[in-house]
Design a protein that fits this description.
The protein is built from ten helices and seven strands. With about 300 residues, the protein is of the alpha+beta class. Strands 3-4-5-7-6 form a five-stranded mixed barrel. The chain has a two-stranded antiparallel ribbon with strand order 1-2. Helix 2 packs antiparallel against helix 10.
Length: about 300
């Protein structure tokens, strides 16, 4: 899945082509909405000490198309034209997930049909460090500069929902937070992100496993992989496995040892920096729009 920066240029141009009157702030919001659960999961696990597997299953469900569209509907009620804004946000979410599905990410992908189906959609056309990703970054940098210089930063269409809209917004927000709880068992049964396999420590041996962009620790006694559950696994891998970040495919030899069948090395830090830059831009833009609204 491209970093947030990879979405801005493509989604802005595509949205403007379909909805020429779309406001830039809502387009930018659509660039980040499917990633909100993934951003918050680190905070939740770090602050609460909650089970990494349970949080991951919840986040998979919450980032699905259906649940993200519920968030779109909630946010649209904070505008004076909720139908138009919902259309912009929904299109943005579809574009975001469609773009995510193009990139290669082992043990990962886009959930489009949950809770009816739990297939992970991953076309796998290019890796995060391949040239299409950098082309998306360059496009977003150019479009971001255009937005900053040419687009009006207005909060005139923002409003706090009242009456039935306030009730509807509250119910939609409750559904956004609560529905994933009911959906987690579906994600577990499908073993998405190999969460069920990782949770069943005693029966891991012999089972296939994949990890996306995990931290490598190369020691004299061999390679170790630090993964999203907080665990560390010893790797039985070729000597060419070197670096700081890697995606791997393999099979558990023991509950704590993985025999690597395939691996792909990633540069460290590039994707995170690209995401932080884009998030700062989006937050600043929205901050200026909200300040503009408060002045009215």
């Amino acid at each position: 899945m491209p970093a947030t920066l990879g979405h801005i240029g493509f989604q802005y141009l595509a949205t403007k082509a379909c909805l020429p009157k779309a406001d830039a702030k809502w387009i930018l919001a659509g660039c980040v909405l499917p990633d909100v659960p993934w951003i918050l999961q680190r905070v939740v696990v770090g602050v609460t000490g909650a089970s990494s597997v349970e949080v991951r299953l919840y986040v998979i469900a919450q980032s699905s198309l259906l649940v993200t569209l519920i968030l779109c509907a909630c946010l649209a009620l904070f505008s004076r034209a909720p139908r138009s804004v919902f259309a912009v946000l929904a299109l943005g979410v579809l574009l975001h997930l469609g773009l995510d599905a193009l990139q290669t990410k082992w043990a990962n992908g886009v959930v489009l049909l949950a809770p009816l189906r739990w297939d992970l959609v991953n076309v796998g056309l290019f890796w995060p460090e391949d040239w299409p990703t950098h082309a998306l970054y360059a496009l977003s940098a150019a479009v971001g500069l255009w937005i900053w210089i040419k687009e009006p930063r207005s909060g005139e269409d923002l409003q706090w929902p009242r009456g039935w809209r306030a009730v509807a917004a509250a119910l939609l927000l409750l559904a956004y937070a609560g529905l994933p709880v009911l959906m987690t068992e579906g994600a577990r049964a499908a073993d998405l992100h190999f969460a069920a396999t990782l949770d069943d420590v005693e029966h891991r041996a012999g089972k296939p496993i994949e990890f996306d962009r995990s931290r490598l620790d190369i020691r004299p006694e061999g390679a170790h992989l630090q993964v999203w559950t907080g665990e560390e696994f010893r790797l039985l891998a070729p000597a060419s496995l070197r670096g700081e970040v890697a995606s791997i495919r393999g099979r558990f030899e023991t509950p704590t040892t993985i025999r690597v069948a395939e691996f792909h090395l990633h540069p460290s830090g590039v994707r995170s920096i690209a995401s932080y830059v884009a998030l700062v831009m989006i937050i600043l833009w929205w901050g200026l729009c909200i300040v503009d609204r408060l002045r009215l």
